[in-house]
UniProtKB/TrEMBL annotation:
<protein>
    <recommendedName>
        <fullName>STEEP1 domain-containing protein</fullName>
    </recommendedName>
</protein>
<dbReference type="GO" id="GO:0090158">
    <property type="term" value="P:endoplasmic reticulum membrane organization"/>
</dbReference>
<feature type="domain" description="STEEP1">
    <location>
        <begin position="21"/>
        <end position="134"/>
    </location>
</feature>
<dbReference type="InterPro" id="IPR029704">
    <property type="entry name" value="STEEP-like"/>
</dbReference>
<dbReference type="InterPro" id="IPR057965">
    <property type="entry name" value="STEEP1_dom"/>
</dbReference>
<dbReference type="GO" id="GO:0005737">
    <property type="term" value="C:cytoplasm"/>
</dbReference>
<comment type="similarity">
    <text>Belongs to the STEEP1 family.</text>
</comment>
<dbReference type="Pfam" id="PF25809">
    <property type="entry name" value="STEEP1"/>
</dbReference>
<dbReference type="GO" id="GO:0006888">
    <property type="term" value="P:endoplasmic reticulum to Golgi vesicle-mediated transport"/>
</dbReference>
Length: 141
């Protein structure tokens, strides 16, 4: 009797990875007064921050290397202000909470939001929990 050798086929896995974008959950952020401010397709803490003021950087325009974030900002625009930076000034067009008028972010171009390449969210300005202080909100620097 010949010996029967059974070989199990090696299956090459061609399973497609689920796309990250389709699985991304929207996050909602509130002002410390409880007003809804921002809905965005990622966690703010996962985004890069500016060296100069630790603001969170939200990309509004697609570039060669990075996709624009999908988000909606609920804020009123305030007067532009000038900030002194090393070797010059920086103009910031501020966005304010529509209820308590606390500044929550800014961009370098005049409103509306997304008119420039980036939107910046001030550190400690927003929280994911309505009615709860964001981490770092009371830090004195
Ligand atoms: Zn507010």
């Amino acid at each position: 009797m010949p010996k029967v050798v059974s070989r199990s086929a090696v299956s090459s896995s061609t399973d497609a990875q689920p796309t990250a974008s389709s699985a991304a959950a929207l996050r909602v952020y509130y002002c410390i007064c409880g007003e809804f401010i921002l809905v965005i397709d990622t966690n703010l803490s996962a985004l890069p921050r500016r060296q100069s003021d630790q603001s969170t950087i939200i990309r509004c325009r697609e570039s060669d290397t990075a996709a624009a974030r999908v988000f909606k900002l609920n804020a009123t625009s305030g007067d532009p202000i000038l900030i002194e930076r090393n070797g010059g000034h920086e103009r910031q067009y501020r966005f304010l909470c529509p209820r308590c008028t606390l500044p929550i972010g800014y961009q370098s171009t005049s409103p509306p939001v997304k008119s420039g390449p980036f939107l910046y969210i001030l550190p400690g300005a927003l929280t994911q929990m309505q009615g709860q202080l964001p981490q770092g909100a009371l830090d004195d620097e």
